[in-house]
Amino acid sequence: METAVFLLFAFLAVASAGVVVAHKNPVYATMGLVLTLFSTAVLFVLLGAPFIATLQILVYAGAIVVLFLFVLMLLNITREETPQPGQPVQRWAAILAAAVFSGMAGMLLWRSYGQASQQPLTEQLVSLKGLAGDLFAEYLLPFEIVGLLLLVAVIAATVLARRPDTDELNATSQERKP
Amino acid sequence: MSADFLATLVKMALALGLLLNVVPVMVWVERRGSAFIQDRPGPNRLGPLGLFQALADAAKFVFKEDVTPTAADVPLYLAAPVLALLPALTTFSVVPFGPDLQVGSHLIHLVVADADAGVLLFLALASLGVYGVVMAGYASNNKFSLLGSIRASAQLISYELALTLSVVAVVIPVGSFRLADIVAYQRAHIWNFLPQFLGFMVFLVASFAETNRLPFDLPEAESELIAGFHTEYSAMRFATFFMAEYIAMTSLSALGVTLYFGGWSLPGVDLSGWTGAIVGLAVLVAKVAVCLGIYVWVRWSFPRFRYDQLMRLGWKVLLPIAIFNLILVAALTIAGKL
User: Fold this and answer.
1) What would the mean pLDDT of B171-187 be, rounded to a whole number?
2) Given a cut of 90, is residue B178 above it in pLDDT?
3) The complex's ipTM?
4) Position B304 in a domain
5) Which of A70, A71, A128 to mutate to test the interface with B (most CBs of B within 10 A)?
């Protein structure tokens, strides 16, 4: 039973991730992303981490991807988005990035082989209380720093999107007048 | 087949049956209620008090022609009503509807999914409902539909914040995300809506926006957008959006009464065993019915908000109140007053 569920959702996750990358219609790609997030959430449940699964759906599938869709619709997308003629450097950059990523992942696995950090997560560790204990006691400072980073990003976005004051508007319109 | 598995199947069937039967009843309540509020008779010909009108409506929806626009994005167009209905149906699964039941050697929790993070799971599943609305608007390939879904996505994200923050304030004094624990806390203390009145008001207003009901039904504002996101839908697919709306209202009401009004419990009444289970279910249904009545009452009493008013209310009024309430409740809990 559990294996069947795992196989189904693992397949769904990989297939929908393929749709995200390959589909020409951005809306389909976004819906593929929702399916990927949902399937990985189910995999989290199977791993005994229902809380992380819930957060994944609540935050990513339920809020962030909705914002993606919102922006896509405001941009008035066409059905078939043809890719712009690629620069040859892009291909080499992609290969380089993939090599760096797989190298890092491989090194991480190699280093942690046989160490305590590679032990499977216990239910205790991934439960609500266990996570809260780690986040708010042991790793409080990094957690707060991440919060500060998000705050800075929000302020920066607000400044960038801010409507200019009427005075500034007048100044620019006068400049444009010959 | 194990006994627990069987019990889960029975509970699922019970929840599904209840939720699906809410829809025709609510259609009747809505039509007769609106007629009562507007001082006219309403549909009163078919059966006693016009009760069979809902059956006639359902039959009509089944036999009407199901039109798909030529310019529609067909797969998404067909999937959208299902995407809207599914989250509405699944969210109810975390709401407890009775005390624990001892059957033979098995202890059965009267809740479909006794999840550790039940409240969060409810909110997570409910937040997926927006995709049905957004996909309907996009796939219809109609300006009005698209405008409706753009409004829906912005509105739901804005009000989800206030809703979630007001719910978190309930969780703090209880110390658990499990809805059964929240009911137990209220049985031991007092119904939450008294100490959490501010949060309850935020939850109430935000739940109207979350379910696209008047005064916040901007995604389908008839006077500007024809019918908004479901303009192009007909027959049973249109009815599916209707079902999704009513079932989402019911589930959210069930969450609301569980968080703020003691759920299935009654103060001063000890409910246990089979009688407790039956009375508990009846109490929950009665409380939800009152909530649904308020939905209808509000819908036919208030005019629709303008879009900028909606956004201002969400971000500049409800969100600050919810944050203030959260800090207040946290402070009181630390001080040991709650």
Assistant:
1) 84
2) no
3) 0.80
4) yes
5) A70
> What pLDDT is attached to residue A144?
92
Interface of B with A (CB under 8 A): 73, 76, 115-117, 120-121, 123-125, 127-128, 130-131, 134-135, 137-138, 146, 149-150, 153-154, 156-157, 160, 177
What residues in chain A have their Cβ under 8 A from chain B's Cβ atoms?
27-28, 31, 34, 38, 50-51, 54-55, 57-58, 61-63, 66-67, 69-70, 73-74, 79, 127-128
Domains identified in chain B, total number: 1
Q: What is the pTM of this model?
A: 0.82
CB contact under 8 A, B127 and A127: no
**3-class secondary structure per residue, chain A:** CHHHHHHHHHHHHHHHHHHHHHCCCHHHHHHHHHHHHHHHHHHHHHCCCHHHHHHHHHHHHHHHHHHHHHHHHHCCCCCCCCCCCCCHHHHHHHHHHHHHHHHHHHHHHHHHCCCHHHCCCCHHHHCHHHHHHHHHHHCHHHHHHHHHHHHHHHHHHHHHHCCCCHHHHHHHHHHHCC
Q: What residue ranges do the domains of chain A occupy?
A: 1-77
- What percent of chain B has pLDDT above 70? 99
Position B32 confidence tier, pLDDT thresholds 50, 70, 90: confident
Which of B116, B134, B153 lies closest to A128 in CB terms? Answer: B116
Residue ranges making up the domain that contains B317: 67-334
Residue A86 is predicted with a pLDDT of 67
In a domain, B18, yes or no: no
Query: What pLDDT does residue A177 have?
Result: 46
For domain A1-77, which architecture applies?
Up-down Bundle (1.20)
